[in-house]
Design goal:
- The complex is a heterodimer of chains A (234) and B (79).
- Chain A is an alpha+beta fold.
- Helix content of chain A is 36%, strand content 26%.
- In chain A, strands 1-3-2 form a 3-stranded antiparallel beta sheet. In chain A, strands 4-5-6 form a 3-stranded mixed beta sheet. A 3-stranded antiparallel beta sheet of chain A has the order 7-9-8, with helices on one face.
- Chain A is elongated, with a radius of gyration of 22 Å.
- Chain A contains 6 helices and 9 strands, in the order βαββαββααβαβαββ.
- In chain A, helix 5 crosses helix 6.
- With 79 residues, chain B is an alpha+beta fold.
- Chain B is 41% helix and 25% strand.
- Chain B has 3 helices and 3 strands, in the order H-E-E-H-H-E.
- The longest helix of chain B is centred in the last third of the chain and has 14 residues.
- The chains are: A alpha+beta (234), B alpha+beta (79).
- Chains A and B meet through helix 2 and helix 4 of A and helix 1 and helix 3 of B.
């Protein structure tokens, strides 16, 4: 009898364990979860404001008794994950593997939102130029998951280790700076082409500003935000 | 069938009403591999999406997965 083991990381030991269990389950579908042993390699560091963050590391192992048959396969979602959560995980998992951005996927669910967060060494590949790969995955995941179930629809977010939050902060800072420039000079300012998700962040951030208005111009995928001062003609 | 063609077929099946009609064919042209996606005529809108957003997302993923193989891969939705 041999042993199968996987190592996984997570923000907390609990998350790392859970992620290790998922990986192990992929290798040995239908494994007996009670027989899995965990070894904590590192507790990890929470860090402060993203500085000094170290993921928790856990090794999970199980005696391999060849339990891989169809009969042993369990279709039940793991760890209380809903069916939609499990489907989102599978979608993100398959697509990221194919684009060469293998990563661990953590699913968070709330009443309005279903979020998949990826962590791994190739996040640049996953995000893609101007975020277009990760946005494409996010859009497709939403379309596939809630096809024909419009009333049950939740917001689907695919994220890569804090990418969305970082990007939002950067875009908001840019939006404010360019809005100021537009009102100071009385000239319209055109931003770089962005995805719909990102344009919305800019529009939202500036919608309360009485001195300017924002609109989108150009055709996808080169659509961009324009900031127009209100006191001059467009 | 290549892995990217399999992924495309798997995704397309989940987008349409008639998954059995989904088929992907790979055609080699001198400068690129063409992935031809066939769906039932009533399902064509489902793989194109509003303002072509689904088709564009599929293309982005196909392009991203071919970046490693150095061969251009193009998605064609067959009429």
């Amino acid at each position: 009898m041999t042993e199968v083991s996987v190592e996984a990381t997570g923000e907390t030991v609990g998350e790392a364990k859970w992620s290790a269990l998922r990986d192990l389950e992929r290798k040995r579908p239908g494994l007996d979860k009670a027989a899995v042993r965990f070894q904590v390699v590192s507790e990890g560091e929470r860090g402060l404001l993203g500085v000094g963050f170290e993921p928790a590391r856990v090794v999970a192992s199980v005696e391999d008794d060849g339990l891989t048959g169809e009969a042993a396969r369990s279709s039940e979602p793991v760890g209380g994950e809903s069916e939609d959560g499990a489907r989102l995980r599978e979608l993100v998992d398959r697509i990221t593997r194919e684009v060469g951005a293998r990563c661990r996927v953590a699913i968070d669910e709330s009443d309005e939102e279903l979020r998949a967060t990826c962590d791994g060494p190739d996040l640049g590949m996953l995000i893609g130029k101007h975020g277009q790969t990760i946005d494409a995955i996010q859009y497709l995941a939403g379309a596939v998951l809630y096809r024909g179930r419009f009333e049950e629809r939740k917001r689907v977010i695919v994220d890569a280790a804090g990418y969305r939050a970082r990007r939002q902060t950067a875009l908001e800072a840019l939006a404010l700076r360019l809005a100021e420039q537009a009102s100071a000079t009385g000239q319209r300012v055109e931003l770089e082409p962005m995805t719909a998700v990102e344009r919305k962040i800019v529009h939202e951030r500036l919608k309360e500003d009485p001195e300017i208005e924002t609109l989108s111009e150009g055709t996808e995928p080169n659509r961009y935000v324009v900031i127009v001062p209100r006191n001059v003609a467009v | 069938m290549s892995a990217v063609a399999e992924l495309l077929e798997w995704l397309a099946r989940q987008l349409v009403d008639d998954p059995d009609a989904v088929r992907v064919e790979e055609v080699e042209r001198n400068d690129a591999t063409i992935l031809q996606l066939y769906v039932a005529p009533e399902d064509r809108g489902k793989v194109i999406g509003r303002q072509g957003r689904i088709a564009r997302s599929l293309r982005t993923i196909v392009r991203a997965s071919s970046a490693r193989s150095r061969r251009r891969v193009v998605l064609e939705i067959v009429e």
